Amino acid sequence: MSKDDPFIRYLYALKYENQGTLASLRRACGQRLAESRNCQWFASVSTCPQDFLTVTLAAQYPTAQIRSGKHHHVYEYQGSIGAAWARYCRNSDPDKDPATFYQRRQDDLEKGRTPKPPFSIHERFRTLLDAELERDGTGEMAYRLQGLVRMLVSEEIPIDVMQLARDLRCWRAESRYVQERWARAFYSPFKSKSEAITFDAQTEPEDIQEEEDEYVD
After folding, report:
1. Residue 12 counted as domain residue
2. Considering the domain boundaries, does residue 143 fall inside one?
């Protein structure tokens, strides 16, 4: 996906969309395009179900925030959701910052102390990483991501909308490189072996293009 991709161009232009259309996209979050109301026009932008999910997630932000572009932010590690959720945890309680929490947890394990269990908002993210996204853009992952994004919206925490579009297209990739990238963004800079998370740096695998093209089959 590049800036020449029609859907990526549409995401960049989302701030110019009229309020009625944004409201329709907002209501359609988690639905199939064919079952949505007043969103059938989207097929002229993209026929990829994951793209429809992305734009309905982006539309969860208030119209004023979308107009100003403040719903979008580029995070390090290209993790978007992982980095945004880490920010949510820090904002809710500094003790819940995953970067410091898992360092303390590792220190406790090494010194024979009983570590604190992970917070529920940490476990919510781990559950998201293990969730399946169906070919039609629905399923457990879509449901969980919808709830998570709405919580980010409530705290005015932006997401990397463009990266989310790329990631959702490749969520089903066998290599699970997207899930690993999100995990790296959430737990970085601490890399916990005890938490059984893989952080090996790697370039994008060869199956990405195959996965991106899957929706046109």
Report:
1. yes
2. yes
In tens, the pLDDT along 70-104 reads: 999 998 766 789 999 999 999 999 999 998 999 89
How many domains does the chain contain in total? 1
Structural domain contains residue 173: yes
Local structure of 73: helix, strand or coil: coil
29-79-75-186 Cα dihedral, nearest 10 degrees = 100
Q: Is 34 exposed, middle or buried (0-12, 13-18, 19+ CB in 10 A)?
A: exposed
As a whole number of angstroms, the distance between CA 152 and CA 175 comes to: 28
The parent domain of residue 117 ranges over 6-200
CA distance 159 to 58: 8
**pTM score, whole prediction:** 0.86
pLDDT in tens, 161-203: 999 999 999 999 999 999 999 999 998 754 443 333 333 333 4
CA angle 79, 83, 88 (to 5 degrees): 150
